[in-house]
UniProtKB/TrEMBL annotation, chain A:
It comes from Micromonospora avicenniae. This is Multisubunit sodium/proton antiporter, MrpE subunit. The chain crosses the membrane at residues 20-37, 43-62. It is a multi-pass membrane protein. Pfam families: MNHE (PF01899). One of its GO terms (cellular component) is plasma membrane. NCBIfam families: PRK08965.1-5. Belongs to the CPA3 antiporters (TC 2.A.63) subunit E family. Keywords: Cell membrane, Membrane, Transmembrane, Transmembrane helix.
TrEMBL record, chain B:
This is Multisubunit sodium/proton antiporter, MrpG subunit. Pfam families: PhaG_MnhG_YufB. It comes from Micromonospora avicenniae. The keyword Transmembrane applies. Belongs to the CPA3 antiporters (TC 2.A.63) subunit G family.
Amino acid sequence: MTGGTGAQPPGRLRGRVATWRDQAVAFGWLVLIWNLLWGEFTWGNLVAGLLVAAAVLLFYPLPPVTFGGRLRPPALLVLAGRFVAELVVASVRVARIAVQPGFRPRSAIIAVPLRVRTDLNLALTAELVSLVPGTLILEVDRESGVLYLHVLDVRRPQDLADNRARVREIERRIVRAIGSAAEVRQVHTDHVEKENNS
Amino acid sequence: MPGIVADWLGAVCLVAGALLALVAAIGVLRFPDVLDRMHAATKPQTLGVLLLLAGVALRLRTPGDLGMVVLVGVFQLATAPVAAQMIGRAAYRAGRVDPTLLDVDELANR
């Protein structure tokens, strides 16, 4: 799962460079957030932001997130656009269920295995699936890359299959937006296989 | 003129966001068990908070406040699912889930 092979020096060097790059990115974000929190960009805020960011990274170190892919802006736009559309549609649906008189929704807990098992993909998929109404992540199996989710308002067996397909579709969009070439291929071939099988 | 349009758009966003928050509250009261309630408590609220923030941003229109509004939105989106998952997981593990309300439970035999 971690891309670098630890035994060889070149891999280790690349790993260290990647770690430094991740730290620098996190540092930049923290400084930006600090300035946004104060509401204005001044030299004083910048200096204070640098100090706070350094302290945060030093005293609250996070486990490294391996990011092996690259950003693809068009796919990122598709991801964001579809997310907003799903958010609106699903919000209205849950809102209607909430106020519909005398309606008791049936639910289900389903397991959805993901294809790309990196921590980043697992976290992002879980996050986006969670934000869309009607689905709630209950448990994450990190080892085998399975998300367990609670689905609100199940009416027929087809709904379960639809929800599984929807989660995998979200995963596919995420991988297309930020995944590596190998991961994109993995998601894509699996997709074709699935369609041929069913 | 653009100011008036922004004011009206902002007002519409604020009212829509408030309505979603109200519906979420009704859902929390009406849904039968913890997990269903979590849907109501965390979800319409996501869009509701975003609409409220958009409304506030459209009414305020000052760069300093916009930065804050964006930060609130980002942190809301980043933390809401984590809180929801933690509560859902705790409820499931503590046996606070009513199995008669579930059609399928694929977590049960794990």
